[in-house]
Amino acid sequence: MLTYAIRRLLQLPIVLFVVSVVIVGLLQFLPPSSRAAAYVKSEQQLAHLDEIIKQYNLDAPFYVQYWTWLKNALHGNLGFSRVDKKPVLESIATRLPVSAELVLYAFLPTLLFSIWLGTLAAIHRDKFLDQLIRVMAVIFWSLPTFVLGIALVAVVYGYFKLFGIGRLPPELYIQLSQQEAAGQFHFYTGLLTLDGLLNGRLDVTLAALKHLVLPTITLVLVLGAQIVRVMRSSMLDELGKDYVRTARAKGLPEKVVYYKHARRNALIPVITLAGLMFAFMLNGVVITETIFNLPGLGQWAANAALQLDQPSILGFALFTAFIVALANIAVDLLYALVDPRIRYE
Amino acid sequence: MRKALGLVVGLLLFAGLALAAVPKDTYVYMTYGDIDTLDPAQAYDTASLQIIENVYETLFTYKKDSLTEYEPLLATRYEIKDGGQTYIFHLRKGVQFHSGNPMTCRDAEYSFERILVTNPGDGPGWFFAESLIGYDSNAKSALGENASPAEYEKYWQLIDKSVECDDLYTLRFTLVKPDPTFFAKLLYAGAAIVDSKWAIEHGEWSGTKKDWLDWAGKDLRQSYLHQHVSGTGPYKLVKWDGESVVAEAFDKYWGKKPAIKKVLIQIVKEQATRIEALKRGDADRVTVNDWATLESQIRGLPGVKIWSDPNWARAAAGVIFFNFKVEGKDNPYLGKTTPRDLFGDVNVRKAFAHLVDQDALIEELFLGHGVKYTMALPPSFLGYDPTIPIYEFDPDKAEMYFKKAFGGKLWQEGFEVTITYNQGNTFRQTVAEMLKANVEEINPKFRVNVRGLQWPDYLRSARNKMLPIWPLGWVADYADPDNFIHPFYHSKGALAKRQNLNIPELDKLVEEARATVDPKKRAEIYKRIGRLAHDLAVNVPLPAQQAFIVTRDNLKGVYYNPMRSGTFLWKDISKE
Q1: Are B484 and B378 spatial neighbours (Cβ–Cβ below 8 Å)?
Q2: Are the Cβ atoms of B487 and A47 closer than 8 angstroms?
Q3: Distance, CA of B113 to CA of B107 (rounded, Å)
Q4: CA distance B54 to B246
Q5: What is the ipTM of this complex?
Q6: Architecture of the A101-307 domain
Q7: How do the domains of chain A map onto residue ranges?
Q8: How many angstroms away from the CA of A207 is the closest CA of chain B?
Q9: Which residue has the higher pLDDT, A40 or A129?
Q10: For residues B400-438, b (16+ Cβ closer than 10 Å) or e, as one string?
């Protein structure tokens, strides 16, 4: 199993290399004046377009641009993020914790909640509970994230004045910034709920948690709906199989049949989906981040793509490739854990 | 059941009541524009400058909301000598930077020379360089990478001589020629005095000839002043994480102590989120995109105040540009048989001008809160002539002009043209769609397409002079008419050159105005330019929406100065 994981990890640099060549290559199809979009913001700067193209070397041939980037990347410098106005690595480092904190609180509840509901629906097939769960799943799955998000902001945050948007209330954010400057507060991890505890500041942790409630609900509902559906159909498949009939014939209690036998096997497709979903969430959920004003990776990537900010796009793509590869390996290893018939030599 | 419900509602209400608004000494502004940089020599966008204008200071500044009255900041008085070629500023004594360093003429000299030395292509340095050294770009860009050492030396001498200290508190600018726009340029928030000692200590340009060329055209976003500030302003930067800015009052500020002690400028992209935050009291001011949102979602909200005045207009102008001779092979914006000089014919331009229904635009887009323009110049600027007629909406006249165009050939054969706008700009989109509807109705052989371009495509097409007709605007860099007249009406102007405009008489007038120091005479020339441009219909000035500010109702001291990026300074406001 370990050798399998290592072998898979060794493939990673090749994936990263191909991804980077493809992206730089694709961007070359655009003329330099289009690629200057990340540098030119106003009509005024338009007058100096040629100068800007020269200044940022946008008219250099493909191999020169790629080589310059690769040389720097190998030295640990992924370039400067035009949309974020700081080095790409710094961008990832400051934005990853924001996305990660959301994943931390949204992923596990999403998973557990929807596996539970999916199982419940399958067990009560075609009964009222099943119908209810299915209808709800379809509703939340087809509900655009921005509709749900804005509704939560308007009703829960705006009308009932509960929870918050952004990562912290404004006063607390100002206070922490001042204390950070004075060396009285340290952002060790960038995860505010954790940093609060590490600094002995329970108020920060609680405030940060309060601000995570609404985006978490959004993600649980929208993403959970997909898992519920997969879990239900997978569970139904398993329940129709011979081994389940055998188990029942042996006189095992229904609970054991459902939860010990069938559900375990039904989890395989859910794990695949969850692995992808995890990577997807960690890479930022653009709309949720935008509505709840969380400066995570998703907002950054969307901005970078719109403005053709090459270093940012590359940095983000490499990071994504890395996370997806890791998630895939984790999924493969989990298969073996759930289903002992699967082994990796 | 009822009891339980009552309890839940009660609890929710309590949670609402228990919530405190932003404290009295704190100002929270939620807006959408990304801050590009905090370096005054690089900043060229309102989002960045609205921070810079509060943490840094210039020599002089606008008096509250006036564009014509100024007040001294880091200078106490100034003199103009040699017929407008020399400007002498007497600097304020006893001013400290946030770092604790005292401010002297060395800092002022360093700041302006740094703008001239670095002058990156995407920065504002060009308009200072134009006045002070006669170039509009940095040495590498102006002379080329392969210029001889002697040429570079000459360029450095120009910089070195243009800004000098007569003594520790007297700053002297020597211009290449008398320039009536120079003082207005010094009011630009980026003409700020930076802390030279502190900047040099942190690896910025040394202020000497030794490394000046290394800094020519450098992207200043990668150096120290991009993220760090030591200015003389009433506020000190606490943190800028690439998104929000936190600032606090500077306790050693030379002027009056501000009432607001803490400031948070928060970037919130989603308008609905901003509005909810305002309602709830988490924000003192928010950016609202348009009048429609203002009327439907903001007006009447308890605790919220809308500030507006019919005279409030941005220091901006927008027009419909016509390309006199469209360029580019396989141009997708022009029909195959349509002549490239379609808009070279004055009749076509006038016909289009008569098909813009200005009243409908103002009514529908700005809900009646709009200002019509007679020329491409903000009405508050010197030289604006309100008596120049505006082409009224008149399909009959348009038809007459179309029939005259190209000796009647155009009416027979028709044309196909694409109006482009930058995607996301609903105003320009509406203008384009209105023209499409109105033009196509006149003659079925006329085809007008409307296409929204992404910024990268827009840049490419504009640069290659491929666009035949496009609405576009420009916001003032500095409060001088030349900042509009040259780009909009001179054949070499930043915008007009994209339309292949070449009317020698206009060029002559624009240049004449540039060389005229007397404001009265200048104003007369601008009026003549406006009238000539109208007669030739070189472009169609578009109406602009009346400006407004949305705040909580306990915010006091709010005013509107179109040249301030934040419309007012933080130090001028307070809360009840």
Answers
A1: yes
A2: yes
A3: 10
A4: 12
A5: 0.86
A6: Orthogonal Bundle (1.10)
A7: 101-307
A8: 13
A9: A129
A10: ebbbbbbeeebbeebbbbbbbbbeebebbbbbbebbbeb
